[in-house]
Amino acid sequence: MNIDPAGNAWLGLDVGSILDAVAIVLVLIGALLCLIAAIGVLRLRDVPTRLHAATKPQVLGLMLICIAIALSLRSWQVVAFLVPIVLIQLATAPLSAHMVGRQAHRNGTLDERGLVVDELRESRETPPAAGG
Asked: How many CB atoms lie within 10 A of CB 103?
């Protein structure tokens, strides 16, 4: 191995160059995941698969991009700024997907044949006291 006594080089590269290369790879993978999520939202047919495409790869893509930013800038202030962004994304993406899926179920736009268990079937029926 080509590491100097100070530990600053590996195969003739310094640690900063290696971290920058890793950051570039993470940004590219994250951008690709976000692109796949956008294409999935446009191309997939039913609500559950669109929600899956909109939440899972998009959140992972954002996380990879945030990690790349932190590696590239190498600052604790940047990490302190990016951690709430990732946490808010992790909290809001499932909640928004849940709300969209529930509204699709209420509207009847959900393909019920594709459901294994329909736990919300009773919630669509109008109660007798509701006047409907």
From this structure: 12
Highest mean pLDDT among 4-8, 14-18, 30-34: 30-34
Q: What is the 3-state secondary structure (H, E, C) of 58-117?
A: HHHHHHHHHHHHHHHHCCHHHHHHHHHHHHHHHHHHHHHHHHHHHHHHHHCCCCHHHCCC
Is the pTM higher than 0.85? The answer reads no
Element (H, E) at 34: helix 15-43
Strands 9-10 and 13-14, bridge-based pairing: antiparallel
Residue pair 87/78 in contact (Cβ under 8 Å)? The answer is no
